[in-house]
Amino acid sequence: MNSSERDWNDSSTCPLFSCNRFSRFAIPRFFFNVRDGADVSHDREGQEFTNMEAARREAVCSNREMMSERLLHGGSLNHRQIEVTDETGHVLDVVSSRDVLFSHGKLRSYEDDVTKSAPVSRPVK
User: Which residues of the chain register pLDDT less than 50?
Assistant: First the structure.
C-alpha cells in the first residue's frame, strides 16, 4: 500500500504513531508513567501531542493536580515524578514535584492560576 492508498482515519495503518484524521501527518503518542519512590504506575493508553513541549506541559499540569490532591489529604509531596515516554517505553523527560514547585530556586507561579482572579477580602477599618 502506498501513501496515496492509505486510510488516514484508520490508526491500524500507522503502527508507530496514531494518525490525526484531519491531517496527513503522524501525531506521536506520549505516555505518562507515575513514579512514587520505587513504585511505578504505567500509562497503558497514552495521549497524542504534536511535540514534546506539549507533552511536558501536560505532565506538569497532571503533576500539579496530583500534588494538590496529596496536599489536601495530608500526603507527602516528595518522590513523585511523571516520566514522559514514547511508544517504545524510552523515557524522554521526567517532571518531578520540585520542577512543578520551583523555578530558579523560587516558588513558581503559572499563567493559568485561577486564584489570581479570586476576590481579596480587606480588613474593615
Answer: 1-20
